[in-house]
UniProtKB/TrEMBL annotation:
GO aspect biological process, one term: GPI anchor biosynthetic process
InterPro entries hit by this protein: Endo/exonu/phosph_ase_sf, Endo/exonuclease/phosphatase, GPI-anchor_lipid_remodeler
Keyword terms, alphabetized: Endonuclease, Hydrolase, Nuclease
Presence of keyword Thylakoid: no
A single MF term (Gene Ontology): endonuclease activity
Any one of the GO CC terms: membrane
Protein name: AP endonuclease
Domain of life: Bacteria
Coiled-coil parts of chain: none
Protein's organism: Chryseobacterium nakagawai
Entry annotated with the keyword rRNA-binding: no
Length: 265
């Protein structure tokens, strides 16, 4: 039985069927979206974000895009990779760099947002991407060629894992040292059951596990879709809903849309 439970929990990080949650007047709508610098349609991205009318938007790979049509939003300074936009007062924004300063690698962006008299720390995450090409992960009938492809993939993985370790340590410090409840969202470039997932979710709740239904796969550029986008939150908060919006294909990621109740449980 214990073996069965150990298997079920990892599976639920990919596919889940949560019970209906009661809507809360304190709930805020959050959109997390890797927009691939708007390369698949800048206007489409802007139109989508405007239509969502979210309280907080966390973007990854924003490519330094401007958002002139998103009226009524405060935003963090442009850094070419991460942006947080919100309808509420925003302060204490700070880029989080990897532990290895020689890499000068952005790992995340924090911003404190005051909502209805209380402050919450939002952390927008973008971990270094694995430099895959589609041909690298496409196996054929030649076992010798396939073996070489697998070895090539492993060689590509190792240095990226090392970068992730540095990035995760710094992001974890930001989370642990926050004086406020935390909401962490973004593109982790890591699947569930990974080192990155376990360490960044430590002490937090996974919104999909709490309130998600169906599949959480969010990256669809390859033939096999995978889950690498997440929303985590402090245990004093509560997820009301979580959905991967597959109605739009304006990036190689689908947007993740969640509602989080800010009332104490």
């Amino acid at each position: 039985m214990l073996v069965g439970l150990a298997f079920v929990n990892p599976v639920k990080r990919w596919v889940n069927f949560s019970s209906e949650k009661k809507e809360s007047s304190s709930a805020i709508k959050i959109v997390s979206f890797n927009i691939k610098a708007g390369l698949m349609g800048r206007d489409e991205v802007l139109n989508y974000l405007r239509a969502q009318d979210a309280d907080v938007i966390l973007l990854q790979e924003d490519g330094g895009m401007e958002y002139p049509t998103l009226k009524g939003y405060n935003r963090t300074k442009s850094n070419g990779i991460l942006t947080i936009l919100t309808k509420y007062h925003l302060s204490n924004e700070k880029l989080i760099f990897s532990e290895d300063e020689s890499m000068n690698l952005q790992s995340g962006l924090q911003a404190d947002i005051e909502i209805k008299g209380k402050t919450y720390r939002f952390v927008d995450v973008y971990l270094y991407p694995f430099q895959f090409e589609k041909k690298m992960v496409k196996l054929d009938g030649n076992s010798e060629d396939n073996e070489q492809k697998v070895k090539g993939v492993v060689r590509k993985l190792i240095p990226t894992f090392k970068k992730h370790q540095d990035q995760v340590r710094k992001i974890s410090e930001t989370i642990e040292n926050s004086p406020y409840p935390v909401i962490v969202a973004g593109d982790f470039n890591s699947v569930p059951n990974s080192y990155e997932y376990y360490h960044l979710s430590d002490g937090l709740e996974d919104a999909f596990m709490t309130a998600g239904k169906g599949s959480a796969t969010s990256f669809h550029d390859y033939k096999f879709p995978i889950r690498i986008d997440y929303v985590f939150y402090s245990k004093s908060l509560k997820a009301i809903s979580y959905a991967v919006d597959r109605s739009v294909s304006i990036s190689d990621h689908y947007p993740v849309v969640s509602r989080i109740s800010l009332n104490d449980k």
